[in-house]
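Whether sequence alone determines local backbone shape is best considered at the level of individual chains. When preparing material for the folding task, we compiled for one chain both its residues and its backbone structure tokens. No coordinates are needed to read the tokens, only the vocabulary itself. For completeness, the protein is quoted in full, as a sequence line and a line of structure tokens:
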Amino acid sequence: MILAAGVGSRLDPLTSQLPKPLCPIFGKPVMEHIIALCKKHGFINLSANTHVMAKKMSEHFKDINKKLGVNLNLIYEDELTGVAGGIRSCKKYLTDDVILIIMGDALTDTDLSSLYEAHINSNCAVTAAIKEVNDTSQYGVAVVDKNNRIISFQEKPKAQDAKSNLANTGIYFFNQSVLSEIPPVEEALKFDVATDLFQKLMSKNIPLQGIKVNAYWADIGTIKQYRESIKDILHMKVKIEIDAEKTSYGYKAKGAVIDPSVKIKGRAYIGDNVKIGSNVTLMGNIYIEKNCTIESNSYINDSIIWPNSYISKNVKIINSIIGNNCTVHEDTEIISNSVWAPETVIKNDTKPSIIFS
């Protein structure tokens, strides 16, 4: 079960035209990486709930079963009902004795097979993947005893109040019996996992375990974390499938045309059919998605450019994110630490959508 119905408001304005599970990660949506991870570990019967821009989700994934050799069913929720409520919406497809639950907007290379084995070898109804983090205020955290049994949860506690530094990753294995503990919609419209379902299970003394994972895991739900994850991939800190040629500077996808005079000083991903003109300089960590054009004498430093954007001549972009289908006029200098909404025409006097710290 892939949870894919969320709003993604913390990624605004980038998600103003697409749902968060379709945010690009090296040539494909983040949720497609999750599907590939599931397939790698033998989980091929998949379902996902949708809500925000559900038609775009259906359109993108219409051929995914043939492409990746999985069986994905998308189930539309006309109203968001919490994480456990989303699981409930897919219940008719969740018929196996053990069910994997995973977020469709997370970037991870977690060993799902190892986690599954840990679940099977336990007497627990639920196994949750947990990971040590530095900043507990960004995550729900789990408190475990010496036998890895979960004894309580905290929702985004401040450092001084945190009883644990173990983030709940939202990757779970449920026994089939757990689904019956989710009440029908008539009894509880909205029902969450950690705050409702797990509390109910613990009140009944139904055992839950937390297994620490050392793999890469990130919720890409904020501008800051999205940028950090792109950098992490460029520096090979996460193992994902990238359909591109490996190069001395990073990755070059099919159809990309880079003028011989281009200087790349750092790490870069150049997406499908990208065209980069003469005397362009790419510095630092650079991520350019498919079908973008960058004209001559432009300078780009530590920046992200989403698909189908056009960068004119003599443009300077530093530490910024350009949304999809944007046009940057000639001789424009992009304000540092800025994010630009999709389909923006950018000139020197254009105000960015947001400034990040």
Remarks:
- The first strand starts at residue 2 and ends at 3.
- The first helix runs from residue 30 to 40.
- The radius of gyration is 22 Å.
- The chain has a mean pLDDT of 96.
